[in-house]
Amino acid sequence: MEEFTSWRANGHRFTHRGHQIFWREDGQGDDGVMVCIHGFPSASWDYHRLWPGLCNRFTRVIAADMIGFGWSAKPRHYDYTIADQADLHEGLLREQGIDRFHIVAHDYGDTVAQELLARDAERRNAGDESLTLQSVCLLNGGLFPEVHRPRPAQRLLASRLGPLVGVLGTERAFHHNLAAIFGPDTKPSSRELHRLWLLWTNKHGHRNGHILIRYLAERRTHRDRWVGALQRSAIPIRFVDGVADPISGAHMVRRYRELITDADVVELPGIGHYPNLEAPEQTLAAIGEFHDKQAHEPTR
């Protein structure tokens, strides 16, 4: 548990809407600021296998546990929305005096990144350079709600039984449901799953699962805005996808190629929903090549 304990011990705190938010920071490279946005139901810990490589490349690497997740506050009566999670990231960046940044995002974090893309376009159109998004690298996530395939456990959590599911769900069921979305040869160990369980249940966060899962409905409600942000983006975007993922694998890649002009896609055969955990070296290589490519292309 030493690495896991160290991740928390080396974190920082900032305040978002009166609540304490956990975040990590490091970096000694030359490529600017990279913001890592995690997925559901985990936390910034999702990036621990990419962390050394990202920190070697980027000047600052920042990863927050979004509100309701990980070691951040998990208020019971709170309006958890994708827009609010985007506000959280923008607030952290502004507090740190950062005005230009890149993103790597996964799962739920992809949707937050899509909202940040939409806001970046609005600022550019208004001539506002106070906060500029430079590039986005997306890992497996529900970019297009019409082809996203939520698992039975997610559907149950989003149903009227959701409050009971969140409270009564066992660690064994959590392990089973999460392991099922990894690739056939890249399953997580029981220790890795236990760490994710600890993050999910810290501060009784699992009791909010039925509220947090509402992001699935938000994706449908705001589809035009969030899909449009991908289609009309003025900045480079790469989609890195573990194609063995039953939620957002090969079928999500097909839809991405249908809807995004000149789609930049890296497919990872045999990898499931968590390329950042299952294939860190391949994922880092895809991120690095993406940024090398940008360095040799004219600024948009």
Strands, helices and their partners?
Layout: H1 2-9, E1 12-16, E2 19-26, E3 33-37, H2 51-57, E4 60-64, H3 82-95, E5 100-105, H4 108-125, E6 132-139, H5 152-157, H6 162-168, H7 171-179, H8 190-201, H9 209-212, H10 215-221, H11 223-231, E7 237-242, H12 250-259, E8 265-268, H13 275-278, H14 280-295
Parallel strand pairs: 3-4, 3-5, 5-6, 6-7, 7-8
Antiparallel strand pairs: 1-2, 2-4
Helix pairs in contact: 3-4, 4-11, 7-8
Describe the structure.
- The model has no long low-confidence stretch (mean pLDDT 95).
- β1 (12-16) and β2 form a beta hairpin.
- It is built from 14 helices and eight strands.
- With 300 residues, the protein is α/β, with parallel strands linked by helices.
- 44% of the residues lie in helices and 16% in strands.
- α3 (82-95) packs across α4, α4 (108-125) crosses α11 (223-231) and α7 (171-179) packs across α8.
Kindly list the characteristics that best describe this protein.
single chain; 300 residues; alpha/beta; 8-stranded mixed sheet; 14 helices; 8 strands; globular
Instruction: List low-confidence stretches.
Output: none
Secondary-structure element order, N to C: HEEEHEHEHEHHHHHHHEHEHH
SSE-based structural type: alpha/beta
Rounded to the nearest angstrom, the radius of gyration is: 18 Å
Proportion of residues in helical segments: 40-55%
Taken from the alpha-carbon principal axes, the silhouette is globular
